[in-house]
Amino acid sequence: MTGSSGASGPSGGTVNRLRPRRSCLAVPGSNPRFLEKAQGLPADQVFLDLEDACAPLAKEGARHTIVEALNEGDWGGKTRVVRVNDWTTHWTYRDVITVVEGAGQNLDCVMLPKVQDAQQVHALDLLLTQIEKTVGLQVGRIGIEAQLENARGLVNVDEIAAASPRLEALIFGPADFMASINMKTLVVGEQPPGYPADAYHYILMRILMAARAHDLQAIDGPYLQIRNVDGYREVARRAAALGFDGKWVLHPGQVEASNEIFSPSQEDYDHAELILDAYEYFTSEAGGRKGSAMIGDEMIDEASRKMALVVAGKGRAAGLTRTSEFEAPEA
Ligand code: GLV
Ligand code: MG
């Protein structure tokens, strides 16, 4: 997990953009039973959906159901997000106004799907600012998550990532994306038959690079075979291995897998903390002010320290505690 932990909102208040997102649980906004159940699941983030999990005729009612769920529900410290409809529909402005006027105080981010260029993010930013000013919310506190779901969005991903200080995460939307580029598979997240390598590698890396260049989180989208937890794990591991911060979960059975896969292992976490301690010791006066250090046969330098900081940061955020301590060598 990287990111500027203290991005400053337009009104000067400090906003924490570095929220945990190992598991991002999709909840249809029109289903009060699911909205209730989601509150008890150990997902880092929930997003209450007004877009594709919500039928057109149910959207109007779902806006109000979501407002009630945000205001009355007990979300237990989870990151609370609402996915609105994309700007090519006629629903977006009303989604944002109803939800933010009604429950802005209890909302962390708005997720914007099918983002194609920076203007679409600007438009949402401006609308949020007007609502915040009108109803007396801190201007700039509500963040934006941008979903990349088509070729145009991916081609413009750098300008999208730079479009607003409200941005917190870029999200890959594989289902819409595969349709957009004519990829030959109907199983979302699985490899298309006949291609000998990872067909998603370029897209995932492109999103990850834009995210990291702008201090945003990178999140992998859904895996639709909800009963196939092994399949989910495999796809999630692919994104985690590249450096993604988390993945969507559509089913309670996927939550635990995602939390585990996007947290460092205990062994890696312990090792990262050891590297940080060793580096600090050996570069200090007491340790001889060296530029590098050794742990056993491993040389530790400034670059290793940076890598260790990322792993240690993820481990601390996941609530891991150390099981080993650094011991300075005898003088
Ligand atoms: C998610 O919205 C997707 O299209 O995969
Ligand atoms: Mg989609």
Automatic annotation (TrEMBL):
Chain residue ranges for the region called Disordered: 1-21
Protein name as catalogued: CoA ester lyase
Record InterPro entries: Aldolase/citrate-lyase_domain (IPR005000), Citrate_lyase_beta/mcl1/mcl2 (IPR011206), Pyrv/PenolPyrv_kinase-like_dom (IPR015813), Pyrv_kinase-like_dom_sf (IPR040442)
HpcH/HpaI aldolase/citrate lyase domain: residues covered: 22-252
Cofactor(s) needed by this chain: Mg(2+)
Entries under SUPFAM superfamilies matching the protein: Phosphoenolpyruvate/pyruvate domain (SSF51621)
Keyword list, A-Z: Lyase, Magnesium, Metal-binding
